[in-house]
Write a structure and sequence with these properties.
Elements: H1 12-25, H2 38-44, H3 49-61, E1 65-68, E2 72-75, E3 80-83, H4 90-96, E4 101-112, H5 115-120, E5 128-138, E6 141-150, H6 168-174, E7 180-191, H7 194-200, E8 207-217, E9 222-231, E10 235-238
Parallel strand pairs: 3-10
Antiparallel strand pairs: 1-2, 4-5, 5-6, 6-9, 7-8, 8-9
Helix pairs in contact: 1-3, 2-3
Bound molecules: 2-amino-2-deoxy-6-O-phosphono-alpha-D-glucopyranose.
Length: 248
């Protein structure tokens, strides 16, 4: 069993998070299992209850665990939580859950932008964009189809990249010098059409979630407009809300 290192530079709650994550990843704790209480964890690892609570809360926010009022905290039933607090990509979301992301490229070529894409990327319709259509999987299970239209100087070079084995966000940030700073995203419920259902290996008409995301660099310049379809029974979107004004 892993232990918490007292003189490590990593904060204790962070070390505990990784220990708990590993217990899920290794299969020791299965979806639906009740995890030990804050008190039990604080005794087992000789840490404060506050530290245990912080680690659990983080893993709840990341979708690894979920809480049920009065019953305790459980391992999530194979659902992926896409948190809507920080801008992260598919690879990061899946890795955070301890799963293995993979990608099948369906299309990767320059195409003229349609009207909606052009509007989001602040272009004229018909201007060339790099169109990337990918099937995204976690532990070899199909989860989403993501269609990204990309526009930046040199975007045609993406055709030469290994897009099956690289995260797009990582490529953009580390190879193309495009820090991704913010995004606008919409989410909508829908039913899978025949083609989507075939690719996602689900029955046609299954519940899905459509998202549309425009991602901007630090200069507030849109670089990607992506429309994605996620399997409805595999995704939870998490957000944290703050109230601005109270009823007086
Ligand atoms: C998300 C977004 C997409 C984005 C992708 C990048 O899922 N919806 O717009 O293209 O992440 O993921 P990765 O960095 O794994 O390629």
């Amino acid at each position: 069993m892993h232990t918490i290192l007292r003189n490590s530079p990593l904060p204790r709650y962070h070390q505990l998070k990784e220990i708990l994550r590993e217990r899920v990843r290794s299969g020791e704790w299965k979806p639906g299992d009740l995890i030990p209480s804050e008190r039990e964890l604080s005794e087992t690892y000789s840490i404060s209850r506050m530290t245990a609570r912080q680690a659990i809360t983080d893993l709840v926010n990341e979708g690894v665990f979920y809480r049920e009022q009065g019953r305790g905290t459980f391992v999530t039933q194979n659902k992926i939580t896409q948190q809507l607090l920080h801008l992260t990509g598919f690879t990061e979301d899946i890795r955070a859950r301890g799963q293995r992301p993979s990608t099948k490229v369906l299309t990767a070529e320059m195409r003229p932008a349609d009207e909606v894409t052009a509007e989001h990327l602040r272009l004229d319709p018909g201007q060339p964009v790099f169109l990337l259509r990918r099937l995204r999987l976690a532990d070899d299970e199909p989860l989403a189809i993501e269609v990204s239209a990309l526009n930046f100087k040199g975007c045609e070079r993406l055709a030469e990249e290994d897009l099956e084995h690289n995260s797009l966000y990582q490529l953009l940030e580390s190879q193309y010098g495009l820090p991704l700073m913010e995004a606008d995203q919409e989410i909508e419920a829908g039913l899978a059409g025949d083609e989507e259902a075939g690719i996602l290996k689900i029955p046609a008409g299954s519940a899905v979630l459509y998202t549309r995301r425009t991602t901007f660099t630090d200069r507030n310049r849109p670089v990607e407009y992506a429309t994605s379809v996620y399997r409805g029974n595999k995704y939870t979107f998490y957000t944290h809300l703050k109230r601005d004004r109270l009823f007086s």
